[in-house]
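Re: that chain you flagged

S.,

Sorry for the slow reply, it's been a week of failed gels. I finally had a moment to sit down with the sequence you sent. For the record, here it is as I used it:
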Amino acid sequence: MMAPADDGSPPVRDVPMPPGRQSAFGTAGDFVAPPGSHVIPDDPAGYYIDLRAKADTPDTPPIWWPRMSTEPRVVITQWGLGCWEHYLAGDGEEWLAAARWAADRLLEQQHADGPRAGGWTHDYAFRHTYRIDPPWMSGMAQGEAASLLVRIHRETGAERYASAAVAALGPMRVPVTAGGVGGSIDGGWIPEEYPTDPPSHVLNGAIFGVWGAYDVAAALGDADAGSLAREGIETVASALHRYDTGSWSRYDLFPHPIANVASPMYHRLHISQLRAMSAISDDPRFPATAERFERYADSRPALARAYAHKVGFRLLVPRNRWLAHRLPWAHRSGA
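Prediction finished late last night. Pasting the C-alpha coordinates below so you have them in one place:
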Protein backbone atom coordinates (compact mmCIF):
# COMPACT_ATOMS: atom_id res chain seq x y z
CA MET A 1 0.00 0.00 0.00
CA MET A 2 1.19 3.49 -0.79
CA ALA A 3 2.18 5.81 2.02
CA PRO A 4 -0.16 8.72 2.84
CA ALA A 5 0.55 12.05 1.20
CA ASP A 6 2.56 14.66 3.11
CA ASP A 7 -0.59 16.73 3.76
CA GLY A 8 -2.26 13.82 5.54
CA SER A 9 -4.63 12.99 2.69
CA PRO A 10 -4.87 9.34 1.61
CA PRO A 11 -2.70 8.10 -1.27
CA VAL A 12 -4.38 8.32 -4.65
CA ARG A 13 -4.63 4.52 -4.89
CA ASP A 14 -6.80 4.50 -1.75
CA VAL A 15 -9.12 7.31 -2.87
CA PRO A 16 -12.58 6.09 -3.99
CA MET A 17 -13.64 6.32 -7.61
CA PRO A 18 -16.43 8.77 -8.48
CA PRO A 19 -20.04 7.51 -8.31
CA GLY A 20 -22.09 6.56 -11.34
CA ARG A 21 -19.68 4.16 -13.04
CA GLN A 22 -20.54 1.09 -15.09
CA SER A 23 -19.07 -2.38 -14.81
CA ALA A 24 -16.68 -3.78 -17.39
CA PHE A 25 -19.41 -4.64 -19.88
CA GLY A 26 -22.04 -2.14 -18.80
CA THR A 27 -24.47 -4.72 -17.45
CA ALA A 28 -24.14 -3.56 -13.86
CA GLY A 29 -23.10 -0.51 -11.91
CA ASP A 30 -24.74 2.46 -10.27
CA PHE A 31 -25.25 4.72 -13.28
CA VAL A 32 -28.72 5.33 -14.65
CA ALA A 33 -29.31 8.12 -17.13
CA PRO A 34 -32.97 9.09 -17.57
CA PRO A 35 -33.90 12.18 -19.57
CA GLY A 36 -33.86 15.36 -17.52
CA SER A 37 -37.14 16.46 -15.97
CA HIS A 38 -36.51 20.24 -16.01
CA VAL A 39 -35.67 20.77 -19.69
CA ILE A 40 -37.02 24.01 -21.17
CA PRO A 41 -36.35 24.50 -24.91
CA ASP A 42 -34.40 27.66 -25.72
CA ASP A 43 -33.77 28.31 -22.01
CA PRO A 44 -31.05 26.09 -20.50
CA ALA A 45 -32.38 25.28 -17.06
CA GLY A 46 -32.42 21.54 -16.47
CA TYR A 47 -29.90 19.39 -18.29
CA TYR A 48 -31.05 16.95 -20.96
CA ILE A 49 -29.90 13.90 -19.00
CA ASP A 50 -30.50 13.68 -15.26
CA LEU A 51 -26.96 13.18 -13.96
CA ARG A 52 -27.79 13.14 -10.25
CA ALA A 53 -26.40 9.59 -10.10
CA LYS A 54 -23.00 11.17 -10.80
CA ALA A 55 -23.19 13.34 -7.67
CA ASP A 56 -23.89 11.62 -4.37
CA THR A 57 -22.82 14.48 -2.09
CA PRO A 58 -22.34 18.27 -2.40
CA ASP A 59 -19.17 18.18 -0.29
CA THR A 60 -16.28 20.06 -1.87
CA PRO A 61 -13.81 18.98 -2.89
CA PRO A 62 -15.36 15.57 -3.58
CA ILE A 63 -13.56 12.72 -1.85
CA TRP A 64 -12.44 11.37 -5.23
CA TRP A 65 -10.98 14.70 -6.41
CA PRO A 66 -7.32 13.84 -5.58
CA ARG A 67 -7.66 10.85 -7.87
CA MET A 68 -9.53 12.51 -10.72
CA SER A 69 -8.41 16.16 -10.80
CA THR A 70 -6.35 15.58 -13.96
CA GLU A 71 -8.37 12.63 -15.26
CA PRO A 72 -11.14 12.77 -17.90
CA ARG A 73 -12.63 16.24 -17.81
CA VAL A 74 -16.11 14.78 -18.09
CA VAL A 75 -15.81 13.48 -14.51
CA ILE A 76 -15.83 16.88 -12.82
CA THR A 77 -18.22 18.31 -15.42
CA GLN A 78 -20.80 15.55 -15.04
CA TRP A 79 -20.48 15.78 -11.28
CA GLY A 80 -21.19 19.51 -11.56
CA LEU A 81 -24.21 18.93 -13.81
CA GLY A 82 -25.45 16.30 -11.37
CA CYS A 83 -25.14 18.82 -8.53
CA TRP A 84 -27.05 21.32 -10.67
CA GLU A 85 -29.89 18.83 -11.13
CA HIS A 86 -29.98 18.25 -7.37
CA TYR A 87 -30.32 22.01 -6.92
CA LEU A 88 -33.17 22.26 -9.43
CA ALA A 89 -34.90 19.36 -7.69
CA GLY A 90 -35.03 21.43 -4.49
CA ASP A 91 -32.34 19.56 -2.58
CA GLY A 92 -30.75 22.73 -1.22
CA GLU A 93 -28.43 25.66 -1.92
CA GLU A 94 -25.41 23.55 -1.06
CA TRP A 95 -25.86 21.76 -4.37
CA LEU A 96 -25.67 25.04 -6.27
CA ALA A 97 -22.48 25.89 -4.39
CA ALA A 98 -21.05 22.51 -5.38
CA ALA A 99 -21.96 23.01 -9.04
CA ARG A 100 -20.28 26.43 -8.94
CA TRP A 101 -17.20 24.87 -7.33
CA ALA A 102 -16.97 22.48 -10.29
CA ALA A 103 -17.36 25.39 -12.74
CA ASP A 104 -14.56 27.26 -10.97
CA ARG A 105 -12.24 24.26 -11.33
CA LEU A 106 -12.99 24.28 -15.06
CA LEU A 107 -12.11 27.97 -15.25
CA GLU A 108 -8.78 27.24 -13.56
CA GLN A 109 -7.92 24.44 -15.98
CA GLN A 110 -9.14 25.93 -19.27
CA HIS A 111 -6.45 27.02 -21.74
CA ALA A 112 -6.65 30.80 -22.04
CA ASP A 113 -4.63 31.18 -25.23
CA GLY A 114 -2.45 29.36 -27.70
CA PRO A 115 -3.43 26.60 -30.15
CA ARG A 116 -5.71 24.96 -27.56
CA ALA A 117 -7.42 28.15 -26.40
CA GLY A 118 -10.76 27.38 -24.78
CA GLY A 119 -9.93 23.71 -24.38
CA TRP A 120 -9.32 21.31 -21.55
CA THR A 121 -6.48 18.92 -22.34
CA HIS A 122 -5.82 15.41 -21.12
CA ASP A 123 -2.12 15.01 -20.49
CA TYR A 124 -2.00 11.23 -20.58
CA ALA A 125 -2.36 8.61 -23.30
CA PHE A 126 -5.85 7.17 -23.63
CA ARG A 127 -5.84 3.81 -21.91
CA HIS A 128 -7.93 1.53 -24.09
CA THR A 129 -10.08 1.09 -27.23
CA TYR A 130 -8.36 3.90 -29.16
CA ARG A 131 -4.74 4.93 -29.32
CA ILE A 132 -4.55 8.63 -28.49
CA ASP A 133 -1.35 10.31 -27.43
CA PRO A 134 -1.28 13.36 -25.14
CA PRO A 135 -2.19 16.11 -25.06
CA TRP A 136 -5.69 15.62 -26.40
CA MET A 137 -9.10 17.21 -26.02
CA SER A 138 -12.59 15.75 -26.08
CA GLY A 139 -15.63 17.17 -27.88
CA MET A 140 -17.83 15.62 -25.22
CA ALA A 141 -15.90 17.30 -22.42
CA GLN A 142 -15.94 20.64 -24.26
CA GLY A 143 -19.69 20.47 -24.78
CA GLU A 144 -20.58 19.34 -21.27
CA ALA A 145 -18.34 22.00 -19.77
CA ALA A 146 -20.06 24.67 -21.88
CA SER A 147 -23.44 23.38 -20.69
CA LEU A 148 -22.43 23.61 -17.04
CA LEU A 149 -20.83 27.03 -17.43
CA VAL A 150 -23.86 28.66 -19.08
CA ARG A 151 -26.09 27.35 -16.29
CA ILE A 152 -23.84 28.78 -13.60
CA HIS A 153 -23.75 32.05 -15.55
CA ARG A 154 -27.56 31.97 -15.76
CA GLU A 155 -27.83 31.61 -11.99
CA THR A 156 -25.04 33.96 -10.88
CA GLY A 157 -24.81 36.51 -13.68
CA ALA A 158 -20.99 36.28 -13.55
CA GLU A 159 -19.66 36.97 -17.04
CA ARG A 160 -16.54 34.86 -16.62
CA TYR A 161 -18.64 31.72 -16.90
CA ALA A 162 -20.29 32.95 -20.11
CA SER A 163 -16.93 33.87 -21.64
CA ALA A 164 -15.49 30.46 -20.80
CA ALA A 165 -18.52 28.71 -22.29
CA VAL A 166 -18.16 30.58 -25.58
CA ALA A 167 -14.43 29.84 -25.63
CA ALA A 168 -15.13 26.13 -25.05
CA LEU A 169 -16.68 25.92 -28.51
CA GLY A 170 -13.45 27.08 -30.17
CA PRO A 171 -11.71 23.66 -30.27
CA MET A 172 -14.97 22.10 -31.45
CA ARG A 173 -14.71 24.11 -34.68
CA VAL A 174 -11.12 23.00 -35.32
CA PRO A 175 -10.77 19.69 -37.21
CA VAL A 176 -9.21 16.76 -35.40
CA THR A 177 -6.46 16.74 -38.03
CA ALA A 178 -5.53 20.28 -36.92
CA GLY A 179 -5.53 19.48 -33.20
CA GLY A 180 -9.17 20.20 -32.39
CA VAL A 181 -12.19 17.98 -31.83
CA GLY A 182 -14.29 18.81 -34.88
CA GLY A 183 -15.32 15.86 -37.02
CA SER A 184 -17.42 15.30 -40.11
CA ILE A 185 -19.94 12.74 -41.33
CA ASP A 186 -21.03 13.11 -44.95
CA GLY A 187 -19.77 16.69 -44.89
CA GLY A 188 -21.71 17.71 -41.77
CA TRP A 189 -20.07 18.87 -38.55
CA ILE A 190 -20.03 16.58 -35.54
CA PRO A 191 -17.95 16.86 -32.33
CA GLU A 192 -15.61 13.96 -31.62
CA GLU A 193 -15.48 12.61 -28.09
CA TYR A 194 -12.15 11.02 -28.96
CA PRO A 195 -9.87 12.68 -31.56
CA THR A 196 -8.92 9.54 -33.47
CA ASP A 197 -7.73 8.89 -37.00
CA PRO A 198 -9.68 7.32 -38.59
CA PRO A 199 -12.64 9.03 -36.88
CA SER A 200 -14.42 7.18 -34.10
CA HIS A 201 -17.73 9.12 -34.17
CA VAL A 202 -18.85 8.03 -30.67
CA LEU A 203 -22.62 8.58 -30.61
CA ASN A 204 -23.23 9.58 -27.00
CA GLY A 205 -20.21 11.89 -26.97
CA ALA A 206 -21.32 13.62 -30.16
CA ILE A 207 -24.76 14.34 -28.71
CA PHE A 208 -23.33 15.70 -25.46
CA GLY A 209 -21.04 17.93 -27.52
CA VAL A 210 -23.87 19.24 -29.70
CA TRP A 211 -25.87 20.07 -26.58
CA GLY A 212 -23.03 22.34 -25.45
CA ALA A 213 -23.24 24.37 -28.65
CA TYR A 214 -27.04 24.51 -28.37
CA ASP A 215 -26.85 25.74 -24.77
CA VAL A 216 -24.38 28.52 -25.59
CA ALA A 217 -26.68 29.67 -28.38
CA ALA A 218 -29.85 29.48 -26.29
CA ALA A 219 -28.43 31.01 -23.11
CA LEU A 220 -26.22 33.70 -24.60
CA GLY A 221 -27.84 34.44 -27.95
CA ASP A 222 -24.64 33.47 -29.74
CA ALA A 223 -25.46 33.23 -33.47
CA ASP A 224 -22.31 31.29 -34.37
CA ALA A 225 -23.07 28.73 -31.68
CA GLY A 226 -26.62 28.47 -32.99
CA SER A 227 -25.40 27.71 -36.50
CA LEU A 228 -23.00 25.09 -35.14
CA ALA A 229 -25.73 23.47 -33.05
CA ARG A 230 -28.17 23.28 -35.96
CA GLU A 231 -25.54 21.66 -38.16
CA GLY A 232 -24.64 19.20 -35.42
CA ILE A 233 -28.27 18.23 -34.80
CA GLU A 234 -28.80 17.61 -38.52
CA THR A 235 -25.58 15.60 -38.82
CA VAL A 236 -26.49 13.36 -35.87
CA ALA A 237 -30.04 12.84 -37.17
CA SER A 238 -28.79 11.98 -40.66
CA ALA A 239 -26.23 9.51 -39.30
CA LEU A 240 -28.50 7.61 -36.88
CA HIS A 241 -29.03 4.76 -39.33
CA ARG A 242 -25.29 4.07 -39.19
CA TYR A 243 -25.58 3.29 -35.48
CA ASP A 244 -28.48 0.86 -35.90
CA THR A 245 -27.39 -2.78 -36.35
CA GLY A 246 -30.98 -3.95 -36.77
CA SER A 247 -31.04 -5.41 -33.27
CA TRP A 248 -28.95 -3.02 -31.13
CA SER A 249 -27.12 0.30 -31.21
CA ARG A 250 -23.45 0.83 -31.95
CA TYR A 251 -21.20 2.74 -29.56
CA ASP A 252 -19.07 4.19 -32.35
CA LEU A 253 -18.23 3.95 -36.06
CA PHE A 254 -14.50 3.28 -35.69
CA PRO A 255 -13.16 0.49 -37.95
CA HIS A 256 -12.43 -1.97 -35.16
CA PRO A 257 -11.84 -5.66 -36.01
CA ILE A 258 -15.55 -6.13 -35.28
CA ALA A 259 -18.29 -3.55 -34.71
CA ASN A 260 -18.28 -1.94 -31.28
CA VAL A 261 -21.89 -2.42 -30.19
CA ALA A 262 -23.03 -0.38 -27.21
CA SER A 263 -23.01 -1.98 -23.79
CA PRO A 264 -26.49 -2.27 -22.25
CA MET A 265 -25.76 0.86 -20.19
CA TYR A 266 -24.76 2.89 -23.24
CA HIS A 267 -27.69 1.53 -25.24
CA ARG A 268 -30.03 2.85 -22.54
CA LEU A 269 -28.14 6.15 -22.58
CA HIS A 270 -28.64 6.39 -26.36
CA ILE A 271 -32.38 5.98 -25.86
CA SER A 272 -32.48 8.70 -23.21
CA GLN A 273 -30.40 11.04 -25.36
CA LEU A 274 -32.61 10.54 -28.41
CA ARG A 275 -35.72 11.16 -26.30
CA ALA A 276 -34.11 14.31 -24.90
CA MET A 277 -33.27 15.48 -28.42
CA SER A 278 -36.99 15.74 -29.10
CA ALA A 279 -37.13 18.60 -26.60
CA ILE A 280 -34.93 20.79 -28.81
CA SER A 281 -35.61 19.37 -32.28
CA ASP A 282 -38.74 18.38 -34.16
CA ASP A 283 -36.80 16.01 -36.43
CA PRO A 284 -38.85 12.76 -36.48
CA ARG A 285 -35.72 10.63 -36.83
CA PHE A 286 -34.92 11.09 -33.14
CA PRO A 287 -38.13 9.64 -31.64
CA ALA A 288 -38.33 6.99 -34.38
CA THR A 289 -34.83 5.74 -33.64
CA ALA A 290 -35.47 5.88 -29.88
CA GLU A 291 -38.53 3.65 -30.35
CA ARG A 292 -36.54 1.09 -32.34
CA PHE A 293 -33.76 1.06 -29.77
CA GLU A 294 -36.35 0.59 -27.02
CA ARG A 295 -37.76 -2.44 -28.82
CA TYR A 296 -34.27 -3.89 -29.03
CA ALA A 297 -33.74 -3.28 -25.31
CA ASP A 298 -37.00 -5.08 -24.48
CA SER A 299 -35.94 -8.16 -26.44
CA ARG A 300 -34.11 -10.78 -24.38
CA PRO A 301 -32.57 -12.43 -27.46
CA ALA A 302 -31.30 -9.04 -28.67
CA LEU A 303 -29.84 -8.31 -25.24
CA ALA A 304 -28.13 -11.70 -25.14
CA ARG A 305 -26.65 -11.20 -28.62
CA ALA A 306 -25.46 -7.71 -27.73
CA TYR A 307 -23.80 -8.93 -24.55
CA ALA A 308 -22.11 -11.82 -26.35
CA HIS A 309 -20.93 -9.46 -29.09
CA LYS A 310 -19.56 -7.04 -26.51
CA VAL A 311 -17.63 -9.82 -24.80
CA GLY A 312 -16.17 -10.82 -28.16
CA PHE A 313 -15.28 -7.22 -28.89
CA ARG A 314 -13.42 -6.85 -25.61
CA LEU A 315 -11.47 -10.01 -26.30
CA LEU A 316 -10.30 -8.44 -29.55
CA VAL A 317 -10.03 -4.87 -28.22
CA PRO A 318 -9.17 -5.22 -24.52
CA ARG A 319 -9.58 -2.45 -21.98
CA ASN A 320 -6.01 -3.23 -20.88
CA ARG A 321 -3.82 -0.65 -22.63
CA TRP A 322 -0.62 -2.74 -22.58
CA LEU A 323 -2.31 -5.74 -24.17
CA ALA A 324 -4.52 -3.77 -26.56
CA HIS A 325 -1.58 -2.04 -28.21
CA ARG A 326 0.35 -5.29 -28.69
CA LEU A 327 -2.28 -7.22 -30.58
CA PRO A 328 -1.67 -7.76 -34.32
CA TRP A 329 -4.40 -5.31 -35.31
CA ALA A 330 -3.43 -2.64 -32.75
CA HIS A 331 -2.17 -0.32 -35.48
CA ARG A 332 -5.79 0.24 -36.54
CA SER A 333 -6.39 2.06 -33.27
CA GLY A 334 -3.68 4.63 -33.88
CA ALA A 335 -4.25 8.37 -33.78
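What I noticed first: Residues 1-16, 23-28, 331-335 have pLDDT under 50 and may be disordered.

Talk soon,
D.
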